[in-house]
């Protein structure tokens, strides 16, 4: 009898919600309570220092040490009033998650005592020993220094007793060892390129900002049940488990009523996130049982990325307080939806215009068209690279499966925008067109007001869909750092905008009228980007064939998809924009391949252990029970009667044997394969071998285990089943 499994089920059933006290204040009042935001800076800094800080943020002016010291002094005062005793640089190394190293605010007073001190130098720069962070060979161990440097554009905040300072992280020789450094460079590139193009329409524009609104999906699992599943614990996903008879087929979970224990978790999470300045807005049940989503209002991209990293760690922490574990893996359960992180992205100007939104006048819409078409251009030229930016050992389970975007990047525009593009392409005059905005839909239902219908439809099958005033990049994985895809997207669009601007400029210098020049270049580009535009069903097999004909990247093997980072076009783009150098790209790929093979290696080991410690012993034990029964029947009845009475059990005994034999043989073979491929020295080849030769065992072994789960007596089965993991909360 498997007591652990039944104990944790019983415990989970009994768990009451952990009620969270309602805050006395309204969200608008406690929003940003633990953030040293502009308002607090204004209060805690001398006026001149505050002004300098604004110049640093808005015009990219350098930060001098004197100003840094003064900012640090104000920060310390605020932080100590809030009860903070320590500070840390908080950065995003090339692993999953964030890193921090805490230092207390103390120094010798040289009179035998201590003083609270926090200098500008400590704020601006630290030197964490970097040798344990992945560097992809950029830094051999004797050059273990890595530097973290404050990012003044992302405000510092307090968690517990610690002042957290968002920083970039670079090597001794200046190569980026993190996500933030190249992201900031990509954002600067798209600002510069976007501003030049926006100025063609309005000379007052001086800055273009990239916005990001992420939608974070996640699963919650009861902590006790989670602890009884070593595969979830060690790999973040279930390596086995037969489908629950009921899962998402009734479509009753999506937007369904939120269970109370979960609702309290969400409330707690939101309060804490709001206090940290994360503008949470939406929460709901997702498609799969126990799957949920949290989405804030969009923000400037760099800040939004930091906030997403913060939310992911907050989710994990708050979940534990409520007796849950938060699963951020893209595919924790086979057979039901996985989790993604839709990245809603747009560009806006400092004159208050969303460049990806249609406007009121025909000229506004030419601007809108320009930014849509040049976005498509970036996505088209670098579709393979964009796919590489979201690919990982964990996200590969989701892409191409039947609920997620396919492993081919294309863009959905919707009927109206598509027709608009066609019209412009085929027009022979410089006549400008109006694009219809929202229109009213009269419903003949009493008392229900007229609905405003968007000018785009939705297409859930598109990985990069236009949604009215932005593009939504849906292929991003739930556990990923959004910076990875945002670096590529913003760079690709910056390159396209630069190219567009240069060609328009050439025509103007040749005597063309400005609007005529813009239209002429756009007509060419509308033709060029046609292959990336696809409004049909991205899940269909016909699309795979069609996409290949169109020359889109259709590769499905993750380690090979990573090669796109080292394509000449990618290197030229990143180097040309000053985002990353070839050596940095090579280093990053080393890390991607290494992470990839290690994840599969760990999964393969965990599966091997579970087979030998749980599955085979349990199956054999049940087989013995059946054999016992057969023996007893044979002892009791005549041979003829016994044959008939035992037939059923004998059949089951044989079936168990068939599965256990397959499993044991396959595990042996998997171990041998691992041993063999581990000899491969080249990390890319190693990753490819793990993909091609080791990973397939995980699926085939699983299939047989899942069959056994159906046969073996329920009481003997030691691992919580899907129906328990997913339906008990
Ligand atoms: P859904 O796609 O599920 O309908 P929402 O409409 O709630 O989701 O929006 C998803 C995210 O998109 C939110 O974070 C929202 O703030 C963000 N968003 C809305 N408009 C823009 C925009 N112009 N640029 C970037 N993000 C945006
Ligand atoms: Mg969305």
Give a summary of the structure in a few sentences.
The chain is of the alpha+beta class and 729 residues long. The chain starts with a helix and ends with a helix.
Label this structure with key terms:
single chain; 729 residues; alpha+beta; nine-stranded mixed sheet; 23 helices; 13% strand; globular; binds adenosine-5'-diphosphate; binds magnesium ion
Q: Helicity level, as a percent range?
A: 40-55%
What does the oligomeric state look like here? single chain
% residues in beta strands: 5-15%
Query: Terminal Cα separation, in Å?
Result: 23 Å
What is the tally of helical segments?
Answer: 23
The class by helix and strand makeup works out as alpha+beta
Can you give the mean pLDDT?
A: 91
Taken from the alpha-carbon principal axes, the silhouette is globular
- Give the C-alpha Rg: 29 Å
Bound molecules: adenosine-5'-diphosphate, magnesium ion
Low-confidence stretches: none
Number of strands: 19
Please summarize the sheet with the most strands. Answer: 9 strands, mixed
